[in-house]
Design goal:
The structure is a single chain. The protein has 489 residues and is of the alpha+beta class. The protein has 2 domains: 360 residues, no CATH class; 109 residues, no CATH class. Helices cover 54% and strands 9% of the residues. It has a 5-stranded antiparallel sheet. A hairpin with a 3-residue loop joins strand 4 and strand 5. About 5% of the residues have low confidence. This is HTTM-like domain-containing protein.
Amino acid sequence: MALMRMAVAAIILVDLAIRSTDLEAHYTNLGVLPLHVLFERAWNPYQFSLHTMSGLWEVQALLFALAAALAVGLLLGWRTRWMTLGSWLLLVSLQNRNPLIAQGGDDLLRMLLFWGLFLPWGRVWAKDARELPAPAHYSCFGVATAAFVVQVALVYVCTAFLKNAPEWTTEGTAIYYALSLDQVLMPAGRLLYPHYELMRWLTHFTYYTELLLPILLFMPVATNTCRLLFVLVLFGFHAGISLTLFVGLFFLISFAALLGLLPTPAMNWLEARLGPAVQLGAAHLARWREQLPVWQTPLQVELRLALHPRVPQHRHFRLLPALRDTVLLVLLGYVVWWNLDGIVTPRYGMGEPLRWFGYLFRTDQHWGMFAPAVFKDDGWYILEGSTRDGRLLDLYRGGRRVSYAKPASIMALHKNDRWRKYSENYLFVDNDWMRAYYCNYMLRVWHDNPKNPPLTHLNVVYMKEVSLPHYRVQGPSREVLCGCDAPPR
């Protein structure tokens, strides 16, 4: 769990670094989602966001810096409980500021921090642990750890149940259609794509792995072996996905969750081989870490008392674990019910009046990755700008002359996976209101550079292709999603 804590903190830092490159575009009033549009079009009244206090990039930069500082504290295990709480609050706030770029990995990262509030993941390999005696053993069982294990199982079981289209269950063509999506196709996916029968086999393997492998997490016998097998298979599973499909940070977040499931024998094996390197790194950090003040959380005080039974325990310390476990059981039941809501019949589903808690604390989650079926519609975008002398320039490709030919790599046109997700969302008819803000933003950014020729009009064009069975394609066809005129200059 300490290893998972450090991995989660590192991923938060990477996520912040990637998001910071689009600070103005995604989080300010000058970007694609100004605050008044967020509240009008994409806001849930039960949610909160500190990032909505201002539309200025300077305020957003301060919040980003604060989130990074908290993540560093979490990485070091300094005031772990408070660093976890602060990181979770700011992550929820950041995700709520722009839901149009959210993806499944964001849900998992948020839930790892949420359950981390109750996990003893600062008990070892942490600044806080230096003032505590070494644990008698490294196995840990309780409601919090059970909730974490169930959460990981829900990710895979629920996505399998949601994949109820024939492409997954009978035809075995889901991976073929996934690799037909040029917007997410990675180089290794190009190598796999010509092998139709292999993709059919991998489709069935993926479906039944997600559906049945989580059973290993609850085996009462050979628990360590089953747990290690679960971790190793899914490490390979997510590594394969990351090499074939552009999924952003999702595979790294999944790796972090799997680290928390490594059994004690596996950790002992790793520590024996990595111990010298870890000790060398710790020696370099020791002087700086000694400058951090010692601080005890209430949970650590409670743990210290439990480890020293000769010290008299007050009644309220004895009541804390029972109260915490009761709350955790209720939370776990709520999360399980939320996940089953899209699977069970509406009669047993969660009614809207009960969803306020999930929206407020962001325990809401949906694991519909490529579910119920894989998109068949594919294509690429052209930002078709018209100059005063009649030329057509493609802003998506640095202002080169417009070409309607298919690019060699469509995935490479996206700056990062946040922009890819954004472009996926504004393609949907229900989100057509997004397009005008995007169009005007790109037009303004273009004119902010005095070296660029002035434009009179900009069209957001989608070159649509439809994937058909056995490597057949319908299209491409040119679709103008929206257009905007440049203001007089």
